[in-house]
Amino acid sequence: MLNFEFCSPTRFLFGKGTENKAGEMIKRYGGTKVLIHYGGGSVVRSGLLQRVKESLEQEGIEFLTLGGVQPNPRSGLVYQGIDLCRKENVDFILAVGGGSVIDSAKAIAAGTLMDCDFWEYWKVKKPITKALPVGTVLTIPAAGSEASPNSVITHEETLVKRGCAGEALRPRFSILNPELTFTLPAWQTASGASDIIAHVLERYFTNTKDVEVTDRLCEALLLTVIRETPRVIADPTCYEARASIMWAGALAHNNVVGVGREQDWATHAIEHELSALYDVTHGAGLAVLFPAWMTKALPHNPKLFATMATRIFGIQNTGDDAETGALGIQAWRDFFTSIGMPDNLRELGVKEEDFEYMANRLLLKPDGTLGNFVKLTPDDVVEIYKSCY
Ligand code: NZQ
Ligand code: ZN
Fold first, then answer.
1. What gap in Å lies between CA 191 and CA 135, rounded to an integer?
2. Looking at the domain that runs over 182-387, which CATH code has it been given?
3. Which of 145, 187, 273, 290 should be mutated for ligand 1, with most atoms under 8 A from CB?
């Protein structure tokens, strides 16, 4: 196990009715003038936004609202939010929605305190050290932004999608009421589940030896999401299954399952190119790309893939690790398609002629590669795109 420092200070309020404590939480963390940030309208239709506003009113907290965050959030609204926060002296940002809303809120929180364009940080992934405090009321378990120090934004002019990080971006509190996810369409539920799985797999495939505790925690999360996702697709109001997925989503990305081990993250970068150019739903892109990446990575450590196949899918080792690992990869493909995810890029509207362009836009490490478990060149990335086209 590698040395690590782990501090995940977000306070989680989990369960029915917890959104009514939003005002109380903001007061606890010192917010006096709040920007409530939300998306395209699901929180208006469900009545959640109204309940959250009432909760702030009860505490006598002043607020203004800024809606309209799109999935794969854009820089334009971030600039608008920054201007608003400066003009109105906002001192707390409350994100009510999914990962896109939370990420937009985090970018506004950081950008408000910068004396430069916020994109200067995002463009090169410069660590964020200062931001207004952010709280969240989560409506879709997926991105894990409710627990993570990350924010992923697409720059509108250049269509570059980049994630920026910094402990200052971790939410002070996150409110997780599984009932708020009952209204999710099956596509969003399945895309969210795929993203949660991907967050675990990015950590699971590692060159670090002997990390039993995090191996086993990763496996627990994967087994949970595999079991519970079909249940909520069949019955969207199944509270217990929704609850398990919601908590799994936070644990998958607050890094409790990633400490002490090298992590990969190539597949996420490869997917962000799809979301940036074609507005692909992030989790759906990952459902297509992850099995393709695994196939490329399999020869690097067939034993680890065989272990994954055995422990996650109960596949008997055939005596050949590479063969057993390949069966495990196929089991992932089958799982993703069983929950309604596509298994090729064409279905997502991606164009073959853009493969090289996308691969050459990736932010590479100084050695010219991407990823840690296996080091990919842009040519390898093109090969991966082709293999799942
Ligand atoms: O905009 P509204 O009307 O709210 O509709 C949203 C949106 O259309 C809808 N939705 C959300 N909750 C709902 C609901 N519809 C009905 N009922 C509900 N309860 O779902 C759609 C998708 O929402 P979005 O916020 O985009 O989903 P998600 O949480 O998957 O976020 C995706 C974004 O997060 C980034 C992705 O790249 C993508 O941009 N990520 C952020 C990470 C982070 N900050 O740590 C890590 C991830 O790897 C990821 O990259
Ligand atoms: Zn993700």
1. 24
2. 1.20.1090.10
3. 145
